[in-house]
């Protein structure tokens, strides 16, 4: 039964944590609007370029970037005809797979903390975010705001 145990799927668990963190930033105080903001958050997650792969999740699944209303307004490439589209899609998907392999290998070689760590110096009267673990009855702890600040 281990295969069906949710904690054994690290990728899903990591996504769930990311989604819960994103929801906690936008959910209202009573946590009643999470279902209304969920589509926007999943759109943002799927269209965002991932650090490890160098591509968005949408691109890796569909072989193209998401088209937003803003993209429709701006001029775009009209040379992609239907007869070339399938071949271009196959070529782009294979190139993306090869690049993802390289990016993952490169990311595995570098210690993640060292790449992202920046020394921080605080001065008196600087505005900062304060970690305040708050628990409220009948509200999900995962969706509560963890930091309060200026």
UniProtKB/TrEMBL annotation:
<dbReference type="InterPro" id="IPR050951">
    <property type="entry name" value="Retrovirus_Pol_polyprotein"/>
</dbReference>
<dbReference type="InterPro" id="IPR012337">
    <property type="entry name" value="RNaseH-like_sf"/>
</dbReference>
<feature type="domain" description="Integrase catalytic">
    <location>
        <begin position="1"/>
        <end position="77"/>
    </location>
</feature>
<dbReference type="InterPro" id="IPR036397">
    <property type="entry name" value="RNaseH_sf"/>
</dbReference>
<dbReference type="GO" id="GO:0003676">
    <property type="term" value="F:nucleic acid binding"/>
</dbReference>
<dbReference type="InterPro" id="IPR001584">
    <property type="entry name" value="Integrase_cat-core"/>
</dbReference>
<dbReference type="GO" id="GO:0015074">
    <property type="term" value="P:DNA integration"/>
</dbReference>
<protein>
    <recommendedName>
        <fullName>Integrase catalytic domain-containing protein</fullName>
    </recommendedName>
</protein>
